[in-house]
Fold this sequence. Notes:
TIM Barrel, eight-stranded mixed beta barrel
Amino acid sequence: xxxxxxxxxxxxxxxxxxxxxxxxxxxxxxxxxxxxxxxxxxxxxxxxxxxxxxxxxxxxxxxxxxxxxxxxxxxxxxxxxxxxxxxxxxxxxxxxxxxxxxxxxxxxxxxxxxxxxxxxxxxxxxxxxxxxxxxxxxxxxxxxxxxxxxxxxxxxxxxxxxxxxxxxxxxxxxxxxxxxxxxxxxxxxxxxxxxxxxxxxxxxxxxxxxxxxxxxxxxxxxxxxxxxxxxxxxxxxxxxxxxxxxxxxxxxxxxxxxxxxxxxxxxxxxxxxxxxxxxxxxxxxxxxxxxxxxxxxxxxxxxxxxxxxxxxxxxxxxxxxxxxxxxxxxxxxxxxxxxxxxxxxxxxxxxxxxxxxxxxxxxxxxxxxxxxxxxxxxxxxxxxxxxxxxxxxxxxxxxxxxxxxxxxxxxxxxxxxxxx
Length: 420
């Protein structure tokens, strides 16, 4: 059977906002995103209505926006109700790139079960959403799914019991609505394999905390770059921190999409990147957990910071085309907005140590100015606050829902699209 998108595919996306929530594995590495769709013609009375979308809308996002390519090796988890699953057009979605979350409201009938079997045979991974124990719905679907999702907020007193009941089945257990690192560790101890949420990006301010020697070394380099010190001084300071040099080169090559060739030396990095780009990567590197031994390019907080920085840069260019300075400041604003989570320090202390221009300072300290508006918009999108997004878009005439979704896809392609 030949499946095609409807003729009004472009129009389907004009009133759609696309949100995403990261999904991490036991190593705390990013393996995918749950994609959340909010369309203007969907009722907003209940959270469920806000998160559902038709198969046509989802497929349009993959076809017209190139969302599948933008995610690179990471999978898209997509909420699918009964109508979505029965719609033939969903088979336009690449089976290896998506996970279909079965969000059925009742026990599935024979036709729906048969459809799920067919999709599984065609290579689609199915996940059971909102698992709260064995009932008629779960009993029918458990043999067909590879992932089971448990809402750890709704089941705060029993999520460990629920996970334990699934431990012997050949599937992965995903904890959704994980809000803190402590909660993630409790879920890990309970036998969960996957974790969904921005818990890794929530700041935990530690009173009296001091920066590590490595972080102080990066701040010293940041100040040298900001003061436009000559390259010889930069190289000499880098030589005192050989670990930083190695990590910087790895990070630049992992995230530096668009470079003509890999950066293989510090001198090359300084020459090819230029000072502004070097400043970007140093600020990202500052956020890597000191002494963790983890590859910085696999750190989900660094990936989120780079993604947020690139998204803000794209949005700034849409607001003021050709204003390169505003784009550079937007990127730095995005990166630095997540430094409290990385460093365990309040933003005002970070701003005392790292020099930034006034507009970036105002955006980070008080969400003021155009950069502050753009930062607030991206934060609302991260929180799937659709009403908040619409309110801010109304204050930014150069932007629209379509522009925001397209910019997000472009930013995802920059950070993930060319990944190995």
